[in-house]
Design goal:
10 helices; single chain
């Protein structure tokens, strides 16, 4: 394959991963009533999630898995098997526990990075969606790139399309959920909300990973052939349903926290000052 064709394929993969994430971000942004977050801020949050949170999360996870594997090999006790990244238990620990905690923490740092842009509670989930969708976009592009090098452009595009309907949206939903709690904590007077919603985001992420891994669980039980294909397909469908249900829930939170009544009740809401009417001298009566 020529270098021109390879470059074109990479651009196709990049566009295929980027466009759905951008559409989702537009969808979430239009949910907010009143003054919306500017595109400059949202794209900055998107870039933070894509090029900082994704890369750092990958490095942290690799270091933790390597350290856990070394520890489990140095101390070959049954209670440390889950730390070994080369075992089935270690693989499930990574996707169900380690990855959700690490990735949601890195994405949450992106929301905190733009804390000065949070004026009302509704801004938090919108910014969170920006960070999370950026993370989902770049992670999906990297997965698609790996599939491209193994099976060609069709394989890479197929994987990106599948993840665009599930994983990209899930990352946006989970970080938007944290963003709502962070905004409630920061400007809504609900102390401790950020921590609770971080754990909720981790739980949502872990649940999604468990659902889409249904085929893997079934395979461990010895199921093969059509049964395995059905389980894998159902797992994916359930994952898509969960991702869309989560973003719809977040969108309802945005609507509820951005309508005029919610703004008027906001601790930092200040109605415009009423200027007194200055009347001139009264006209003499005739």
């Amino acid at each position: 394959m020529s270098s021109t064709a390879s470059l074109l394929s990479l651009l196709v993969l990049l566009g295929a991963a980027f466009l759905p994430a951008l559409v989702y971000l537009m969808w979430v942004r239009t949910t907010e009533q009143g003054v919306r977050e500017g595109w400059g801020t949202l794209l900055g949050a998107f870039a933070y999630g894509a090029f900082f949170a994704t890369i750092i999360a990958g490095i942290v996870e690799a270091v933790l898995v390597a350290g856990g594997t070394s520890l489990s090999q140095a101390i070959p006790a049954p209670e440390f098997v889950f730390l070994n990244g080369n075992t089935t238990a270690g693989a499930f620990f990574l996707i169900l526990v380690l990855a959700p905690f690490v990735e949601e923490a890195l994405k949450a740092s992106g929301v905190a990075q733009y804390r000065q842009k949070i004026r009302v509670v509704a801004d938090g989930p919108v910014l969170g969606a920006g960070v999370g969708l950026g993370f989902g976009f770049f992670e999906t592009f990297l997965y698609g790139l790996g599939a491209y090098f193994v099976g060609g452009l069709a394989a890479g595009l197929s994987l990106i399309v599948l993840r665009s309907l599930s994983s990209i949206l899930l990352h946006g939903s989970s970080t938007a959920l944290f963003g709502y709690g962070y905004a409630e904590d920061r400007v809504g007077g609900a102390k401790g909300s950020a921590g609770r919603h971080y754990l909720a985001a981790v739980g949502l992420h872990s649940s999604f990973n468990a659902v889409v891994s249904l085929g893997v669980f079934v395979a461990l039980l010895g199921v093969t052939g059509v049964g395995l294909d059905i389980a894998s397909g159902l797992g994916y469908v359930f994952g898509v349903v969960l991702a869309f249900a989560a973003i719809e829930y977040v969108r309802r939170l945005i609507v509820q926290s951005s309508h005029p009544g919610a703004l008027a009740a906001h601790p930092r809401f200040r109605p415009p000052p009423v200027r007194p009417v200055v009347q001139g001298p009264a006209a003499p009566r005739r």
